[in-house]
From TrEMBL:
<dbReference type="GO" id="GO:0032259">
    <property type="term" value="P:methylation"/>
</dbReference>
<keyword id="KW-0808">Transferase</keyword>
<keyword id="KW-0489">Methyltransferase</keyword>
<protein>
    <recommendedName>
        <fullName>MPBQ/MBSQ family SAM-binding methyltransferase profile domain-containing protein</fullName>
    </recommendedName>
</protein>
<dbReference type="InterPro" id="IPR044649">
    <property type="entry name" value="MPBQ/MSBQ_MT"/>
</dbReference>
<dbReference type="InterPro" id="IPR031164">
    <property type="entry name" value="SAM_MPBQ_MSBQ_MT"/>
</dbReference>
<dbReference type="GO" id="GO:0051741">
    <property type="term" value="F:2-methyl-6-phytyl-1,4-benzoquinone methyltransferase activity"/>
</dbReference>
<feature type="region of interest" description="SAM motif II">
    <location>
        <begin position="102"/>
        <end position="115"/>
    </location>
</feature>
<dbReference type="Pfam" id="PF08241">
    <property type="entry name" value="Methyltransf_11"/>
</dbReference>
<feature type="region of interest" description="SAM motif III">
    <location>
        <begin position="143"/>
        <end position="156"/>
    </location>
</feature>
<feature type="domain" description="MPBQ/MBSQ family SAM-binding methyltransferase profile">
    <location>
        <begin position="8"/>
        <end position="179"/>
    </location>
</feature>
<dbReference type="InterPro" id="IPR029063">
    <property type="entry name" value="SAM-dependent_MTases_sf"/>
</dbReference>
<comment type="similarity">
    <text>Belongs to the class I-like SAM-binding methyltransferase superfamily. MPBQ/MBSQ MT family.</text>
</comment>
<feature type="region of interest" description="SAM motif I">
    <location>
        <begin position="57"/>
        <end position="66"/>
    </location>
</feature>
<keyword id="KW-0949">S-adenosyl-L-methionine</keyword>
<dbReference type="InterPro" id="IPR013216">
    <property type="entry name" value="Methyltransf_11"/>
</dbReference>
Length: 202
């Protein structure tokens, strides 16, 4: 029995493209600081294990390069690629002095324009909630990673307060509990979970 999904203002990455193109003029100084701070970014990036400046890293859905700025603190810029679907956001990234030397390109998170086994690290912040098919995006992440690569996906937490949750559900693509449970039982998530269980018994 199917469930009726709530109406969301941004229901697809196409709407996200329009929205972020519109707010790109003030994204770094007005819209982003209240939701994703440098401290939050740096703590999150610890999970990416950026322990070598020679690592090849891709930041998918990186927009104006806010997360990429955290990456280049640990990795040489020439080894970093920033990909986003919004040319307006990428124009902002190109103007940042610290990001000179990185590769900047337009692209789709669910159809990455890279060969298999291209990168050592995959980073994506504030992007997955706009993907119509997150499973496809995750598969793409692991396709472009080397065998011992690490994927670090950073996203918002669904609010618990009812009023905040109401507006968040209207705005973002937060999955319902039923949708989350289904995704957890579907590859590649189910495969990752089984591998972790196997490793814990070794």
């Amino acid at each position: 029995m199917g469930s009726t999904k709530p109406l969301r203002l941004i229901q697809h990455k196409k709407e996200a493209l329009w929205f972020y193109s519109f707010i790109s003029f003030g994204y770094d100084h007005v819209f982003n600081p209240g939701q994703y701070t440098e401290d939050m970014r740096d703590i999150s990036l610890e999970h990416a294990r950026l322990h070598s400046r020679a690592l090849k890293v891709v930041d998918v859905g990186g927009g104006t390069g806010f997360t990429t700025l955290g990456v280049v603190r640990y990795v040489d810029p020439e080894n970093v690629t920033l990909l986003d679907q919004s040319p307006h956001q990428l124009d902002k990234a190109r103007k940042k002095k610290a990001l000179r030397g990185i590769k900047i390109m337009e692209g789709d998170a669910e159809d990455l324009p890279f060969p298999t086994d291209t990168f050592d690290r995959y980073v994506s912040a504030g992007s997955i909630e706009y993907w119509p098919d997150p499973q496809r995006g995750i598969r793409e992440a692991y396709r472009v990673l080397s065998a011992d690569g690490v994927a670090c996906m950073i996203g918002p937490v669904r609010p618990t307060f009812w009023l905040s949750r109401f507006f968040a559900d209207m705005w973002m693509l937060f999955p319902t509990e039923e949708e989350s449970r289904h995704k957890a039982e579907t590859p590649p998530c189910s495969l990752v979970r089984r591998l972790r269980m196997l490793a814990s018994h070794m």
